[in-house]
Design a protein that fits this description.
six-stranded mixed sheet, 6 helices, alpha/beta, two-stranded parallel sheet, binds zinc ion, Collagenase (Catalytic Domain), 2 domains
Length: 331
């Protein structure tokens, strides 16, 4: 096993990235993000990446794969995804032996219903949890211009991260677990694992999973994009912004840019202190780097197509609606 570990701290000690390189039987590629909460709202981000290639762009988006891998579908970057399936882990889903979050302090079994009911109660609006999650999927999908597609499916309840193929029958599985006091997971809002190195040939169990910390706090921040979170209370995670970020790892295969407050994928001081549910231009460039861009016809071509279609409509009208030959005015 080759192990490379890089740890960086910002001036305020608010960031930690850990990169590991490992060549197991399966070319696994995982990214983990942990949101921290402190009284001054700094946060600590841990990134655990088991990947052969990681690219860091200058002051811009970061992809977990370097032109290849850590994406769904064809591993070659610039190609669209296959249909990315996702599910909420069945109630009682466990973490498989060896799951990294067990060492990180996650405990018990998945209880999405508890998270959902707590969130909906905080939001004082039934359906808010489902809405926030679906909004996040739709935001990435819409920005992809049809190149990233999602489909919600039933979960099979297989242990998360297990070696049984059922553990990775669904691409993105969303779970919620409690955390042990003072463990690394106790400081997390959620953890997201990146896509596999090669989805078509080397699926892996952890890839794409997103796991919430049931002991963290989640809410619907009032206001619009860019508005600061309310002050004075305990730190809370704006759920839609949080899962949008985790999907950036789990579905899109993006890492954290080194700067870029306002980028959904940015993690650092002063990030996550305001409503951030819209993708920035840099987030979208990252998405396009991994899944490509759908060509849009030039305006002149659109004009020609429009003229051609109008001609067809006129022709069709003549064909379908000939002048009635029993109209006395024409006799
Ligand atoms: Zn992250």
């Amino acid at each position: 096993m080759a192990l490379d570990k890089t740890i960086r701290f910002s001036r305020r000690g608010s960031r930690q990235d850990v990169r590991k390189e490992w060549a197991p039987k399966l070319l696994a590629s995982f990214a983990t993000t942990i949101y921290d909460r402190t009284v001054i709202r700094l946060f600590i981000a841990f990134v655990f990446v088991l990947t052969l290639n990681t690219t860091f762009a200058f002051a811009g988006f970061v992809t977990l794969g370097n032109g290849w891998g850590s994406k769904w579908g064809d591993p070659v970057h610039g190609t669209p995804s296959d249909t990315i399936t996702w599910s909420f882990m069945s109630q009682g889903t466990t973490l498989a032996a060896g799951h990294p979050l067990l060492a990180g302090g996650a405990t018990g079994s998945s209880n999405i219903s508890s998270l959902e009911s707590m969130f909906d109660a905080n939001a004082n609006s039934p359906g808010s949890f489902q809405q926030a999650v679906h909004n996040a999927f739709n935001t990435w999908s819409a920005a992809s211009n049809g190149r990233v597609t999602f489909q919600e499916v039933s979960d099979n309840g297989a242990p998360s991260g297990g070696s049984n193929p059922n553990s990775y029958a669904v691409d993105i599985r969303i779970g919620a677990f409690h955390s042990m006091n003072a463990s690394s997971f106790s400081f997390a809002g959620a953890v997201g694992y990146g896509p596999p190195g090669n989805d078509l040939n080397f699926p892996d169990a952890l890839a794409g999973d997103i796991i919430f910390n049931l002991d963290s706090l989640f809410f619907v921040a009032p206001g619009i994009e860019g508005d600061p979170f309310p002050t004075g209370g305990p730190y809370k995670n704006d759920l839609e912004g949080l899962i949008l970020h985790e999907l950036g790892h789990a579905a899109i295969g993006l890492g954290h840019p080194t700067s870029g407050i306002g980028d959904v994928m940015y993690v650092g001081p002063n990030a996550a202190t305001f409503i951030n549910r819209h993708l920035s231009p840099d987030d979208i460039l990252g998405l396009q780097s991994v899944y490509g861009v759908t060509a849009v016809p030039e305006p002149n071509a659109l004009l020609l197509i429009s003229i051609a279609m109008l001609s067809m409509v006129r022709l069709r009208r003549v064909t379908v609606h000939p002048i009635p030959n029993n109209d006395s005015r024409h006799l």
